[in-house]
TrEMBL record:
One Gene Ontology MF term: methyltransferase activity
Swiss-Prot/TrEMBL keywords: Methyltransferase, S-adenosyl-L-methionine, Transferase
UniProt name for this protein: 23S rRNA (Pseudouridine(1915)-N(3))-methyltransferase RlmH
Source species of the chain: Candidatus Geothrix skivensis
A GO biological process held by the record: rRNA processing
Phylogenetic classification of the source organism: Bacteria, Pseudomonadati, Acidobacteriota, Holophagae, Holophagales
Length: 85
């Protein structure tokens, strides 16, 4: 999955469902965070899954933290635990 502003926006529950759906199919997952220049257009054509963290621009390091926090929330939801909204 490419993390790019052009990707699909999902809420935490939507990301959790997406992860469960792919896990149930036995898919191996990989996430790629692009540089400030984004991804090569050819790569964007090859990778079907794209996720947008926000339409705003963030530094690479902050984007990584935002995504890791969303993964934490998604796995918390999957485990049926409460999470802060």
């Amino acid at each position: 999955m490419l993390l790019t502003p052009e990707g699909t926006a999902r809420d935490s529950e939507g990301l959790a469902k997406w992860l469960v759906d792919h896990a149930n199919r036995g898919d191996k997952l990989a996430f790629a965070l692009g540089s400030s220049h984004g991804f090569d257009p050819e790569l964007k054509k090859e990778v079907p899954e794209k996720l947008s963290l926000s339409p705003m621009t963030f530094p690479h390091e902050l984007s990584r933290v935002l995504f890791l926090e969303q993964l934490y929330r998604a796995f918390t939801i999957i485990r049926g635990k409460d999470y802060h909204k």
